[in-house]
Amino acid sequence: MGDQFMNYMDYVYDDQMRMFSEEQALDGYAWAASRNWAQVVNGVITQVSSSVSYATSNREFTVDVTFDEVVTGFTQEDIVLENATVVNFNSGDGQNYSFDVQAIVDGEVEVSIARESCVGVDSGDANLGSNKLVVIVDTSAPEVGTVDIGNIQDTFYITSQNPGLNLVLKDFEDDVSGVSNYYVSVGLSPTGQEIYPATAFSSAFISIDESSLSGLSDFQQYYVNVYARNLVGLDSEIVSSTFYYFGSLIGDHDGDWDIDFVDYAYFIANYPGIDIAPVTGSAPYFFPNFDGISDEKDLNMFQSQWNWSLDQSRRDEPNYTQSSGPGIRPTLRLLNQQLIVTFDPDASTSQFYLEYAPDDYTIDYLSSNLNSNIVLNGNDYDQGIIQMEIADYSFNRSNPIELTFSFENNTDSYDFLKYSFSTYNKSNQIVAEGYDYLQTAPL
Length: 443
Description:
There is one protein chain. The protein has helices at residues 2-11, 22-33, 261-269, 296-313, and strands at residues 46-49, 54-55, 60-67, 71-72, 79-82, 84-90, 96-103, 107-113, 119-120, 133-137, 146-149, 157-159, 165-170, 179-187, 196-201, 205-208, 220-230, 239-246, 279-282, 285-288, 323-324, 331-335, 338-342, 349-355, 361-368, 373-377, 385-392, 402-409, 416-424, 430-439. With 443 residues, it is mainly beta. The chain has four domains: 42-137, Immunoglobulin-like (Sandwich); 146-246, Immunoglobulins (Immunoglobulin-like), CATH 2.60.40.10; 261-313, no CATH class; 323-439, Immunoglobulin-like. It has a six-stranded antiparallel β-sheet with strand order 21-30-29-24-27-26, covered by helices on one side. A hairpin with a 2-residue loop joins strand 19 (279-282) and strand 20.
């Protein structure tokens, strides 16, 4: 038995290298006794236990004492306490006792039974000292912290371009029992859970994917609500962080988060008939307050979104193939220091893009030949970029769209300048699209 007992002691209970401590020895004796081995020491084995490892409320919990035989002489004075007092002692049946203890202050409470405090009736041996029971008492809720939304845009917005929620929780603390979990919900109020029910997370760095937030609606304000729970089950106050959800942008017909010529052609093909104004807010995060009327306000609203998108894309050159569409490409004429661009007669919406060396050329937009029109001018003279998007939204036009630019070649040589173009008809069908080269001549 000795070798087996030694193995049990060394490999089962010596996780803290407490070779043959009193607590370890008692546990070993109990293990040996459970196998009906001969008693290896003289003494009544004493065990203390509790149904809880953590306690809260009034700092009170119950402790059970068990002797391995009936004893005499066990009293409340034999209980050894740290940070606690006995509030209710049950005289027991001679072998099993219980009593309630109350913590003096929050923190660890230690309970044990003193050695040789009572005597076994059958054996006549004094009891051995018990194991030490430790219970953490915590009556205070965790301190509330802060919630940061890591992927929020411009302080207020979550968008379909960067969906989901990446949260960073800071300063939720509980110095006694510690924080066990953080509970996160998303709803329409500081306690709401309409979008995402309160869910437990063990980490302060939390990611909620887009699929879990499928109930979000465009232009709506939402609340991310968080509270912490400590190991005794007490909850902190709820703290909220708000955001507005933008799944789409006003004027973005194809949903690519870019207000470009495709969206422009669609807008003109359906105008009047599109209502995207009035609004509140600032580009691109406009909140709708539509009036049910399609008028100049809607044209101005689209232009505002187009200007914002142009700044984001830095006036990138269109990526068109050399020639597509059933119509004819635009004609370009250089005459009397003017560049005249004429589009297919069927074109209702047209785009013209030209890059040049600003030190070699001076090019400036002058006019169009249209009355009922909206001109989107994205020219950048410092970079040498002409970007025009122009549309005729009348139904009675007989002449093709024509743009006129002043044009000066400041060099003594000719050159070939690449230009790109795209045109759509009133039915929003492509007429012609592609690129070509303009041959210049010295002044």
